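dude i think i finally got it to work??
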Amino acid sequence: MKVFVFVGVVVGVVVLAGGAHGLPVLNMTGFSWAENAAFDNVGNLFVTDSVQGKVYRIFLNEEGSDYVRALHLTFKKCNGIVFVPGDDLMYALAVTPDGPTLVSFSSQVPEQYESVAALPTLGNGLVYDEPSDSFYATTEGNFIPGAGYIFRILKTGKAYAVVTGLNAPDGAQLLNGQLYVSLVLGAKMFMYDLVDPDHPRLRCDYNAPDNVVSIDDFCFSRDGTSVIAADFRGDQVVQFPEACTVPAATGPASVVLAPVTSPTSVYLAPSDSTTFNTTVSFITEGGSVVPIVKNRRVLQSPPL
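look at this
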């Protein structure tokens, strides 16, 4: 189903200090609960605001001096988002008039989306698995112990649980064909193999270092040897060894950036990006449940 949505495109200019490689430093406010983000392949960073129900596009202006923001789509709510290069489309977990839905849209065409699949619940983290041509999403299960689960979403419109009984799974990423999931109630990581896409098999789990309070969302370092995590309750972004494949070092996680107000996710720009700094991480802030309060940011860390 194709849906056209009328939105007024609002562009906000941010005053920024100079950054590395001639790029400005991203430190943009105006969000209520910036939840997740994804880069496309033409120099845009898309950010979902779960409280406002907005999808925003952040990009470098023509002069290369500032980052600006444009409203791309509006839903009732919106969380996880991912770019699929083979489709040249963004996919997002959203609440549409039809309920929780996986939607797709062009990163270059605002005000238009297509419904891909009805979902059992909104979900939070979202990843695309190319070998199975399907998506995996997490849901926190209203933070009820054991009520969280992972579900698989097919482009044919089907969506169903594949892992159950989890305690508030939130972040989701893929590394070397393995599905990694983090728990926001606590600071634990799980790694599943996807040999059978309908039956992910738990291969490894571990606790983050003691100075990490909760892992909302995360990404991996470019060499895949460490986890860069948004510690929501710890108000910090941290980095620690990916202990399923790398022998874990003893001691605390290193602090990438603190304090950060309720960080919800962290991402690296594509390694070939010319419009976003490739030596830093990009962070979203959440925590405001009132749409009119718009003091949360999307910002970048110091060099990793």
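The first strand starts at residue 2 and ends at 4.
im so relieved honestly
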